[in-house]
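Supplementary Note 3. Input sequence used for the single-chain structure prediction.
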Amino acid sequence: MSFHHSVGDGLSAYGWDAGLEESFASHRSAGLIPARVAGVDRGACDVITETGPLRARLSLPEAADPISSPCTGDWAALAPGHSPALVAVLPRRGVIVRSAASRSSHGQALAANVDTAVLAVPLAGELNPGRIERLLALAWESGAVPVIALTKADRSADPGQAVTDVAELAPGVEIVPTSAATGEGIDVLRAALTGTVVLLGPSGAGKSTLGNALLGTETLRTGDVRAQDGKGRHTTVRRQLVPLPGGGVLIDTPGLRGIGLLDADEGLRQVFADVEELAGQCRFRDCGHHSEPGCAVQAALASGELSERRLASYRKLQRENDWATSRNDARLRAQHDDRKKTITRSLRETYAFRDRQRRS
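The predicted structure, written as discrete structure tokens, is reproduced below.
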């Protein structure tokens, strides 16, 4: 885990403000200290405190939903001492969540309390529209503002055309061609970032290299480019949290091999705002957008205003999101029922024991 601490800055360099201080009042009166989580692994976590970085053990009740467990970017309450312990997590402003890569019903929290999500899209190969739409849905759903960084622009024959192509997938999103090798676009991208910034994208997209360009130092570990295909290797294996020189905080994440959606209804509505707007113009409210009369979506397909790929992606991601969300909801309901059964069984055993004691 790599993190830096600026002497004298305390937690303000990591985003601590008056609002957080107010919400922390009861914890501070109990002798706890504030901290920001930089990484979690093996039942412990790396945190930043007012006096510097610490390694702390986790001392929290097991969460019914893993998404609510501490993750990078969380603000927390720490019990200080010889063996510091993280004992509470402050309410989140938002969290970036994907469906677990294992295809289980669990979700995975990637980063919490994020203000800006930089989506790294490499121009060294063919664009993947579906992946871009998935990343955008994750970002919008969390409440973060997405910014698309087209990395490795120096290897693209026509970066301008790439901007046009990506803009069709991301209406209203700022798109910045960048090159860490030449410095192209780095200042423009830096100006678009506010607050806590997370880097998201697939392995080899150049996230860590881009992060180093934003930081102005070689803080984040990077890998060499493979000669055969010009792609980078997967080098970031843990999330990292470091302050940006111009203010704000940067979270670097491992490459996302799978970008599954979970409970991302609002994110999908933002990503496919064009399809949603057309659907609202259909004659029938329950239009399935197939062969119904007065279907504005089918009319847009016929005129070329909407592409078949775009509509197919919209339908696919909606189905996937609905399926993953229903599985997660069913698991949580089952866990709730199991806890009720355990409590009921325990109470029955207690009452039976008392009855035996009375009779004896």
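The longest strand covers residues 33-41. The CA atoms of residues 33 and 186 lie 36 Å apart.
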